[in-house]
Amino acid sequence: MLVGLGIALALADSSVVTLALPDILRRFDVEIPEVAWVLTSYNLVLAFAAVPAAYVARRRPVPVFVLGTLVFAAASLACGLAPSFGVLVGARCGQAVGGALLVCAALDLLTEIDGSDARAVRTWATAGVLGAALGPAAGGILTETLGWESIFLVQAPLALVTVAAAWRLRARPLVVPAGRPNVPANLALLLVSGALTAALFLLVLLLVDGWRISAAAAGVIVSVMPAAAIATSAVAPRVGSTLVRAAAGALLIAGGLAALGVLPGSDWRWTIVPQVFVGAGLGLTLSALTERALEGRSPQAVHGGWTIAARHAGVVVGLLLLTPIFTTALDRNEDRALRAGAAAVLDSDIPPLEKLGVAQDVLAVVRNADREVPDVRQAFADRPDDEQYRTLEERLVDELDRAVTAAFSRPFLLGALLALAALVPIAVAGRSRRVSV
Amino acid sequence: MRALPVLVAGLLAAALVAAYVAFGGTSYEPTQVADPCAPRPARETDGTGERIEVVLLAAADETACALGVSREELVLALRSVDELDELADKEGRSRDELEDALRDGLERAVDEAEQEGLIGETTANALGFAAARLPLSLLLSVLRGASSFLD
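The joint structure predicted for all components is written out below.
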């Protein structure tokens, strides 16, 4: 169980800082495309390091697990204490190297603990799904209660506990040659992970930055996804074969993301059902594809390394594709909302000679936001607290909320397309299996 | 039958998206801004401030119509000379053209308001003087704080 905790911690780090991004953005005075590197750097390094780490891990699983965990813990401390954005991103790369070592070595340790390859793979995959799904909610609650630094500072002692557990284990080194990775299953993992980035990264950004919901409240709202993932994981083996589960899960993820792309209103309650779909899809697909990628292959650590590389490469692809699409759409919609907002100001009932000032204050707030989601309420901070101003403020907030919500539409729909694209390699995996039979 | 979960998942996903579209999920359109060349309904005015507002908004409409931009874009550009230059660049015009359009629009709106009896001669003369004579940066300051200048 403690080994599972280590895996969950390392894979939760892929998304755990999502809800902290607005605070990190403000703390280091960076913009959305830059702050995304706190996520991108971790996933990119993990994607590149996973397979080499797996080759190292299969020779000496226990020492590699311990080393990886210590590196991960030290880098987590460095993240929590980072004095600059550059140091934070550098420490995230260190965390990823440690994470790659510990996650890949953990698979061999679990084989020793569980006594069977299949059971070890299931535990390993489930721990990974739980980590990825629980990450945003845990990060949001920690950010709100103790500050974003606590996300990293809490991880260090938790990681060290797993070292104590692993130290007593003995695992056989495996030096058999590694066969070729299961390309269709890993490609499907890459595409599904890219799609999940839209849900885990953009939904949080929409709630916190777009709709001004607190990080803790957003953490509670997005916990619908892990809850659905956990519930589905429990019944997943009864749903069907790995490929049936993977295909059904990809469709649910696509449906949930497409629904997020056509939200009927700027209200968090509209996100609940799509989140259930994405969470259920996540619970079905990730573990099924991981099991499929490792099925009948040896050594497990190396093929496990390929699945980690595929998943985190998918997250990077998702971030690199979705972030510019989102920021471009935000700029365009903000301009349109600004003109509509100016019309609302000029036609409002506030004192006539205040109108130009209010309209231009709103413009200043939007311009100063500079590729962040602006908070037009700032333009009303020094205005009288009467009904005319409140009505106008609500109208402007609504105008901007609708524009921001619409700006998220395309990235969510692109995420849905990535999930649908995963059906192709899943189908290919099914064909190749029939051919080989 | 083995593919039944895939079929069910596909149907559920399609049903969810269809339901969200039916609730108006794809209908985002920002509130449309009015055409500055089209006449606006007349407003009841009460007090000097509201009357001056009507004149300034009419001047904004006149200028925006002449420049082929929306009234809102023009008003937002009145924040400073730099913002006005940005608008001129965007519309492919020179600052002089924009300045002339602004002064002409204000003068026409003041004349019309005076003829309709909306503002008195003193106010009309003050606004007319500002439109014709003040340097651009000062004119923008006057437009932003017209109440203290005229009351």
